[in-house]
Write a structure and sequence with these properties.
CATH superfamily of the largest domain: Tetrapyrrole methylase, C-terminal domain
Strand order of the largest sheet: 3-2-6-1-7
Number of domains: 2
Shape: elongated
CATH class of the largest domain: Alpha Beta
Amino acid sequence: MKQHKTKKLSLVGAGPGDPKLITLKGVERLMSADVVLYDALVDKSLLKYAPTAECIYVGKRLNNHRYSQDEINQLIVEKAFEHGHVVRLKGGDPFIFGRGAEEIVYAESFGIETEVIPGISSSTSVPSRLGISLTKRGVSESVWTLTGTTSRKKLSDDIRLAAQSTATLVILMGMSKLAEIVRIFKDQGKYGLPIAIIQSGYTQNEKSGIGTIETIEKVVKIKGLSNPAIIVIGNVVNHSSSLQAVYASAINLETQNIQNYGQ
C-alpha cells in the first residue's frame, strides 16, 4: 500500500550569502525535503543537504524572472500534493521583503501544513561586514529598513519620511533609484551625510563604496557597483573603525568637488 506523505511547506531563510550562515534548523529541513525551490541569492552549495530532493530554481532577478510569484505559489502547492515536504529556500530572511508571507497564506489555503525557519537578514548582517553598527549610543537611536522599489516599481514614499529623521536607513533593492534617493536627502540639506553601499555581501563577489550624499553617485560609477546591494545611510557609517580612513577620503573628494564648482 502506497504511503501518503504529509503535505508540508517549510519556508527557510538561507542567510545573506555565505552558506555557513544558514541555521542548523534550516539544514535539518533541507535534509528532510522532498522538493527544494530555491532563489537566485541562495548559495547552491546548500543543496548538498538535500541529495535526494528534486531541486528547482525559481529565482527572480531584475528583469529576469524564471517564474512569476503566482507561478511559484502554484508550484509549491503542486509539489506538496505530489511529493510531500517542500522547502522554499530564500536568501536572507524570508519575511524581510522576501514575499514569504504570501507563500505561507497561499499554501495554507490548500490545507498544507506550514512553518517558517528564520534566516539572518542581509539588512543587518551585510553592514556588519564593514564594521557598521546600525545603532550606536549617542549616534543612532533607531533603524529604518526599507525597500527602494515598491511593487509598482516606484520609489517608496517612506524614504522621504525617513530622510527627515536621524535614524539609520537600510535600503534594499534601491540601486536603480539611487539618484532619486540622493535628491531626497539633498532636499533636506544633508549633503554631507555618510552613506555606504555593499554589493553581493558575504559572497566572493562582494565589493563596496563609501561616500556622502554629495559624492556617492560618483563613487558608485568609479567602483562599478550595482544590484544586488544594500544601501546604508546615516552617521553610524563614519563611526566604523574600519571605514574611517575611507570616509575621510570621501570628505576630501567632496571638498574638491565644491572647490572645483566654485572655480
